[in-house]
Write a structure and sequence with these properties.
This protein has 680 residues and is an alpha/beta fold. The protein has a six-stranded mixed β-sheet, with helices on both faces. It starts with a strand and ends in a 6-residue tail after the last strand. Bound molecules: adenosine monophosphate and magnesium ion. The site of adenosine monophosphate has 18 residues, from helix 11.
Length: 680
């Protein structure tokens, strides 16, 4: 399985970039050598052929990594070629793409592919000055969602672009169109010596493999072109990595990116340095800490399909398109009489048709102009009818119906698809379903959705002083208040609670508890023992993992936050103090857990209200105080002492003060964040 030579190629979909090395061109690097610049694809194709020939002749094994998707999202290859075989798509593109140093037809091919679908089609983004038929400039007007927006692997690769986007910084769509024909030709030329991962086991002498240098390469050193740095560091990374574990993925028709963990962590998905904070700043501002978590965490959960019955609070694993229009046919918004509308000014008289249309019991016949038919709310409008007059507004005399205009054409009627059209994107991957969303899904006929498996969140209290409520406690003991609170918080947020109990201040015991927890949890929340004192064993243990960071956050309340990975599982060491534990959980753990669970980064909604208190605060730290609304004003809890648990229950939310110094007098505007904004 090992390779003698590793070459990484950073592709480009554009035209010849000239003789001087530039960014966003083609760069290649053989591990251990210097990166090479290629001004166009023709040159790199020749170079690869020569490299492969040399290596084959020398009996050496080559891994060639390319940084663009080897396949499109599920279903696309079949729609174009009649088969799910990704190589059929490679051949199709090789037949249709024309490539020369100074010009290629990629946008025209994408436009032509779009015409094969109802609506606009999946491709978008036009980098040219001229308009391309059937290729929209923007992605948000597309109505065709026959195909997923992203491949499964891209949901795990944070910040990756979709195959459908052809233009814009970082877009990869053009590279796919211009890269796959080259791979097709290499595969044809070296036939039995080539395997293409993950569709084929990489057992032959040459392996073509999809890679994504962004996964491994940090920022480029000053003065070095980013692409050159990326191919060099990625090649070096794979050269020293045990590739067997990374290559061991099941082969989806959509392909995979080498190094992205599939399903349940074959390797830790989070980088060991994901919690590392740049040194220097003595106290880390809250916003810096949040931005760090936001950009370093990613989804760690697998996916499953559930029915709507079980879908509340679940996080969508893929984008969802409506199955059919809502409403499916024009129908009546009221109880009344339907007819062909027009300029209905003044006195109107119509002859009633014998029959009616009720919800679920449509009228089959045609209603001629000048006639009207009884219709009930929700009834499909019979053909010929586009307008409904309210029953309260008419006089019936035998088979004659009279009313007084004006009545606009289309009044009291709902148009087909006025709410949603078929195939429209209604939710994006990562959205957490609410009861209202279940109505939207059901209305368009969706009974099952692909969701993330629940994030398993371990909850652990630590401290020799803790006793459990409901049991007798010594004078010197206090009751464990954090665990019941954190357990139900996590459950309310939609995750699965793994109760890890309460650990004493004994390092070995705590280590065993963490070892066991890492096997059954995706993330662990602990409280207590997070500072740097003698009995702060959580910090001490995490320190030994090499992934530990003690964040001294400029925030009150909240002592340091201890973060680290224990056997690949992220640990959030919250302060022991219940008030500080809650606030750190709301501010830091809630959005982090959401991202780990496959959802969005969450920001609580606050409201500006007048203060019913006075306060002055120092510059340089964020402050949260317990508060509630009384007579339209925000009242603060009598004490800011963070040991006072009952204040949490007195409160209805928190007042947040920014980092700057502030003097608050009565009626000054303050930002109140209700508990409900934290789903509490
Ligand atoms: P520590 O961070 O372990 O030094 O704890 C800080 C404070 O929080 C101490 O007064 C602890 O007794 C208290 N504390 C720690 N854990 C809990 C808990 N689970 N419930 C209530 N108080 C706690
Ligand atoms: Mg303690």
């Amino acid at each position: 399985m090992t390779f003698d030579t590793i070459v990484i190629v950073d592709w480009s979909g554009g035209n010849d970039r000239g003789p001087t090395p530039v960014k966003d061109a083609i760069w290649a690097c053989v591990a251990g050598q210097d990166p090479i610049y290629f001004r166009n694809r023709i040159l790199v194709e020749t170079w690869l052929i020569e490299l492969f020939e040399r290596e084959l002749a020398a009996g050496r094994r080559v891994m060639a990594g390319f940084d663009f998707p080897f396949a499109y999202p599920a279903g696309f290859a079949k729609a174009i070629t009649g088969t799910d075989d990704p190589f059929a798509m490679w051949a199709w593109l090789n037949d249709h793409i024309e490539d020369a140093a100074k010009a290629n037809n990629r946008f025209d091919v994408a436009g032509a592919l779009n015409t094969k679908f109802d609506g606009i089609g999946p491709f978008w983004g036009n980098g040219l000055a001229r308009d391309i038929p059937h290729l929209p400039k923007k992605g948000n007007i597309r109505t065709n969602t026959d195909f997923p927006e992203r491949r499964a692997v891209e949901n795990h690769a944070k910040g990756s672009f979709t195959c459908w986007q052809l233009a814009g910084a970082g877009a990869v769509g053009s590279q796919v169109l211009m890269g796959l024909p080259v791979l097709h030709r290499l595969r044809e030329r070296f036939k039995d010596a080539v395997s293409v991962w993950p569709f084929e086991a990489p057992s032959k002498q040459i392996a073509l493999i999809e890679v994504w240098p962004t996964l491994f390469a940090g920022p480029a050193p000053d003065g070095m072109i980013k692409d050159a740095h990326q191919v060099k560091t990625t090649a070096a990374y794979f050269a020293k990595t045990n590739l067997a574990a990374l290559l061991n993925v099941t082969a989806p028709v959509e392909g995979w990116i080498l190094g992205v963990p599939q399903e349940k962590r074959p390797t830790p998905p989070l980088r060991n340095d994901c919690f590392a904070m740049p040194q220097g700043a003595h106290w880390t501002p809250v916003d810096v800490a949040l931005a760090h978590l936001k950009s370093n965490l990613l989804a760690v959960t697998g996916t499953k399909t559930v029915t709507l019955k079980k879908a509340n609070k679940r996080i969508l694993a893929s984008d969802i398109a409506s199955l059919r229009a809502h409403p499916p046919t024009p129908n009546s918004a009221v109880d009344g009489y339907g007819f062909a509308g027009g300029a209905a000014l003044g006195e109107q008289a119509l002859t009633l048709v014998d029959g009616r249309s009720a919800a679920g019991q449509p009228y089959d016949g045609y209603v001629e102009k000048g006639r009207a038919i009884r219709v009930l709310t929700g009834a499909a409008l019979p053909s010929g009818v586009d307008t409904v007059v309210l029953q309260e507004d008419v006089v019936i005399d035998g088979d004659q119906l009279r009313f007084h205009g004006p009545l606009k054409q289309g009044a009291n009627a709902r148009r087909a698809g006025e709410d949603m059209v078929a195939g429209q994107n209604i939710f994006s991957a990562g959205h957490k379903l609410r009861p209202v969303d279940l109505a939207t899904l059901a209305a368009t006929g969706i009974g099952k959705v692909a969701v993330r498996k629940k994030l398993r969140v371990g909850i652990l209290s630590t401290g020799d002083e803790l006793a459990q409520a409901g049991t007798a406690a010594r004078e010197d003991q206090i009751y464990d208040a954090n665990r019941p609170m954190l357990r139900s918080l996590v459950q309310t947020w939609g995750h699965k609670v793994v109760d890890l109990g309460c650990a004493p201040d004994l390092r070995d015991e705590l280590r065993k508890t963490l070892d066991a927890a890492a096997k059954k949890c995706d993330v662990i929340l602990t409280s207590g023992g997070a500072s740097a004192g003698d009995e702060d064993h959580m910090s001490a243990l995490l320190e030994g993992t090499g992934s530990f960071a003690l964040w001294r956050i400029a925030m009150k309340p909240g002592r340091p936050l201890a973060l680290g990975l224990w056997n690949g599982v992220p640990v959030f060491g919250l302060p022991g103090n219940p008030v500080a534990a809650l606030i750190c959980a709301l501010v830091f753990a809630r959005p982090s857990l959401s991202v780990l669970a496959g959802g969005a980064w969450l920001e609580p909604q606050g409201f500006t209200l007048p203060a019913a208190f006075t306060k002055s605060k120092k510059a340089g730290r964020r402050e949260y105080i317990r508060a509630r609304i009384e007579d339209g004003k925000v009242t603060a809890f009598v004490s800011e002492g963070s040991g006072r648990v009952s204040g949490l229950s007195w409160a209805e939310g928190l007042v947040e003060f920014g980092d700057e110094a502030k003097v608050i007098v009565h009626c000054d505007p303050v930002r109140f964040i209700p508990y409900s904004s934290f789903e509490l």
